[in-house]
Amino acid sequence: MVSRWIEWLGERVTGTPAASRELVHSEFTMIIDVFSALVGPLRREVRPIWARVAERYGRHAAARGLAAGEVVEEMQYLRELLIRHLAPAIAALRPRQGMALLLRLNRLVDKGVAMAVVGYTDTMVSTLIPSEDGDADPLPNGDEVQAWVAGFRAELETILKANRA
Description:
This protein is mostly helical. It has six helices and no strands. The two termini are 29 Å apart.
């Protein structure tokens, strides 16, 4: 699914000094892994991670040089990808169950869009307004993004392992 998402985004994902293609792939994989856990039985435990992952995704999008609308558009591609991927499974459910799952999926993507825009906006504002020491906050670099992804992955794995036992 990640490869398809990146394919849909095209040139927007080409490597930049702020983000290599591999880093964007890693971040998108994390987003889909968290989203997969969100539609399962651990959704309550994973929901706080989703908000933070989406917010950091928005911050990274600012560092990648995207416009605010492009951040939203990338998340909308995620929505379409998920619907296309899950359509056969949703169609196999009873209508009421399928509709409930589709509505939940859309609410979760909407929350992700909102949090990504918050992260993007916070980052852009922080680059324009100097902090108390007179320096504008820098955009996140590749090492910071990789650390975020690793931290979220560890947190997700901890939740998943604790509930398998």
